[in-house]
Amino acid sequence: MSTPDHNPRRAFIAAAGAGVAGLGFTVIAPGLHLMAVGEANAATEARKAGTAASPAVRWGLLIDAGKCAPGCTKCIDACHTENGVSEKLPDPRQNSQWIRKIELVDKRNGRVTQLPMMCQHCAEPPCVDVCPTGASMKRADGIVLVDRHTCIGCRYCMMACPYKARSFVHTPLTEQNPEVPRGQGCVESCTLCVHRIDKGQQPACVESCPEGAMVFGDLNDPASDIAKRIASVPTTQVRADLRLNPGVRYQGI
Amino acid sequence: MRYGVFLAVILAFLAQFAWADGRTAKPSIEIANPGKCVAPAEEMRRNHMEMLKHQRDRTMRQGIRGEPASLNACIECHASKTTSSVLGSNENFCQGCHTYVAVKLDCFECHQAKAKFKAAGLKP
Amino acid sequence: MFTPSPRHEEGLFYLLAAIGGLVSAIGLAAALYMEHSGHVVTGMNNQIVWGLPHVFAIFLIVTASGVLNVASMGSVFGRVLYKSRAPLSGLLGIAMLSGGLAIIMLDLGRADRLMVAATHFNPTSVFGWNVILYPVFYSFVAIYLWTMMERRMNPYTKVAGLATFVWRVVLTSGTGSIFAFLVARQAYGSALLAPMFIIMSFSWGLAVFIVVQATMYAWNGMTLPPLILKRIKNLLATFVAAVLYFTIILHLVNAYFAKNIAFEYFILFNSEFAGPFWIGQVLIGSLLPLALLFHPATATRVLWVNIAALLVIIGAYFQLHVFIIGGQAFPLDIFPGYDVKSSFFDGAVDHYRASLPEILLSVGGLGIAFTMTIIGVRVLHFLPQDDLAEIEAAGSITD
Fold first, then answer.
1. What is the per-residue burial (b if ≥16 Cβ within 10 Å, else e) of B18-36?
2. What is the number of structural domains in chain A?
3. Cβ-Cβ contacts under 8 Å, A145 against chain B
């Protein structure tokens, strides 16, 4: 949609600024850090500053519904804390929910399963097809995002999503996490904690799960945990019949 | 002759603007960390919107991190030392000039205006 | 019916224009309130994302396209009796489209970003296409009106009418496609919706035209000649029957699929939408008008034909209510074969109630269409005048 600026004068200033900023970053912005600091199960490395997301990588999640504990909402709490999702509106159906626990009861035999459901980060996302301004986008590494600079809040993507993954912000907000801008009138959904994975950390939900039910990693890297697991156990994609090829896979349903 | 008088009056009227600096109210904004800006003040005044706009697309669409015109970096540096925000009063950095020139600030509908802000319960 | 005396006529016009202006202004104020406070003040939520404003907007937009059908029948298909009706039909098209677009643009979460919408274009999005389709539609209708109003341009009316007709078909098929492309929704993902919206536009457009024409005739103390009444009412009946046919096919075929039968059972029998469907859409919107338009006691009387047209319009509201809101109220079937429950209300039927700001905004859109029409017909000489001799001399249909 927009092209980077090719003005040579600005490019020079940007390069010079980057040099100064790179040196002086901790002085100028003490709260901001680029690199992960010793995360216990960081599956990825932080992407170098100044490099774009690469299509060689495809981020995905593998969720073992069998390990998901009834009544546990740690992933939801972690996500909403990390992303600053804290509104409690009088009509609870207007509250944003980036991830939720779904309890499934098999109609045939009453067997109960639970699993967390969030944006499935499809390879062929219907939400991206229908967005009039191109705000609903798929980044090169497979993460489906909403560019809130361009979102006009028409909610067509919410109509198109088969997973009810998207929420609309119904009130003005002031308590956002600086790393996760979100605001009134725009549509939003799970970002796979893109601000964390760009630093080499895990999504908040994955890190918080006490049962270890969620695995995050690069689906395109055959040596990654997630790729090895998917190659060795049966996994499903929700609504696979729609052929959207989601990046989120489930085990145990 | 009449046109000459008319022209002289117009020029005299316009001449006052050459000394406008001393007579026009200017925004008085608090500079929290003087001398450390990304580019000279004149350059920033004219171009900060373009810098932010192009950089936001590089970060958002292409995933490029760590660029100099990061909005968070601007806020960390420019936030008022007392209120820790770039909004709230006309002495605050962003709001001061934007109110002065009557240009609506759209950024903070979504972006956090307070520096070093931790949403409730965030891990450090 | 009521004909104002010459003494009162001008005052009545100003009164009506003022009321229309006031209703529009209140609608705009409601939109401003919604934009300032956020959509928390509406009844729409994360499950029912399109509500009453969209029902009204889609009615106005679809009908605006359809009302131009009257003009097309004159200019494109050569039916003489519609030629004098073409200018009024063009005006109504522009007025109603403006009302509908106003509602939809003011309901956006970020209505201040219309410039962004106009400059960022996603070619796979119907909404994106609309950014081009609608402005071009406006220009085509404006040029079409000009060819009819400017005597020297009259020879070009046919070509302008044809262009407008083709554009209309594309535009309204696009409106139907907005829903047809939603593959995951049991209520929507059907190719049938594109032609169905075209037929709906024909039916509702003609109904609105009949009502407006009747009002103008009453205002001016004129009556519609029986010959013309008969042709118009037969055409309306044809369109109403066609919409009923499409409705039957849509629901029958949808119910044939095992995966959709739960939704069909819900919408037709087991929900708050069953009443609006059977009584509102089918009875009031289709069967009653058909009876009135064909029964010998009512088919030849102007009053009953006008009432039939009004019933079609009321039925249109119910049809869109069931279609748009009912289609969203039924939960998405994310895990077929399972009953689901969650804190995000998965698996639960949603109940929508429009809030006051939404109602005011929706009615405000009607107000905009009304005000534009009333000022337009006052300023422009668009009253359809029939040359009966010409119509009869033209044989039965074409010239």
1. eeeeeeeeeeebbebeeee
2. 2
3. 60
pLDDT at residue A101, as a whole number: 97
Provide the shortest C-alpha distance from residue A53 to chain B (in Å): 5
Is 70 exceeded by the pLDDT of residue C254?
Answer: yes
Contacts of B62 in chain A (CB under 8 A): 52-53, 139-140
Max CA-CA distance within chain C?
71
What domains can you pick out in chain C, each with its CATH number? 13-332+341-382 (1.20.1630.10)
The set of chains that have 3 or more CB pairs under 8 A with B is: A
Output the pLDDT for position C387.
79
Domain-located, residue A45: no
Establish if A50 belongs to a structural domain.
no
Q: Does A105 touch chain B (CB under 8 A)?
A: no
DSSP structure string for C180-209: HT-TT-TTT--TTHHHHHHHHHHHHHHHHH
Is B2 inside any structural domain? no
Contacting chains of A (3 CB pairs or more, <8 Å) are: B, C
Chain A residues whose CB is inside 8 A of the C32 CB are none
Q: Model-level pTM?
A: 0.88
Contacts of C85 (CB under 8 A, 6+ apart): C70, C71, C74, C209, C213, C384
| Domain interval for residue B40 | 27-109
* Nearest CA distance, C333 vs chain A (angstrom): 8
Would you say residue A48 lies in a domain?
no
This complex has an ipTM of 0.93
* CATH at A154: 3.30.70.20
Q: Is the pLDDT of residue B44 over 90?
A: no
Q: Quick check: A184 contacting B, CB < 8 Å?
A: yes
Enumerate the residues of chain A whose CB falls inside 8 A of the CB of residue C117. 132-133, 152
Is B12 part of a structural domain of the chain? Answer: no
At C398, is the pLDDT very low, low, confident or very high (cuts 50, 70, 90)? very low
Residue of C nearest to A152 (CA): C110
Residue of A nearest to B47 (CA): A10
CA distance C337 to C335: 6
Range of the domain at A5: 1-32
Q: Among B59, B64, B72, B87, pick the best mutation site for testing chain A contact (most A Cβ within 10 A).
A: B64
Which CA distances in Å does C354 have to A56, B9, C191, C239? Answer: 47, 63, 30, 30
In a domain, B116, yes or no: no
* Helix, strand, coil abundance in chain C, percent, nearest 5: 75, 0, 25
Instruction: Indicate whether A162 and A64 sit together in one domain.
Output: yes
Number of domains in chain B: 1
Region of B2 (left: φ > 0; alpha: ψ -120 to 50; beta: rest) is alpha
Query: Cβ(A236)–Cβ(C338) under 8 Å?
Result: no
> Do C125 and A130 make contact, defined as CB atoms within 8 angstroms?
yes
In this structure, is residue A78 part of a structural domain?
Answer: yes
Contact C343 A164 (CB under 8 A): no
Residues 6 or more apart whose Cβ sits within 8 Å of residue C388: C225, C227
**What does the pLDDT look like over C189-242, one tens digit per residue?**
999 999 999 999 999 999 999 999 999 999 889 999 998 999 999 999 999 999
Is position B76 within any domain? yes
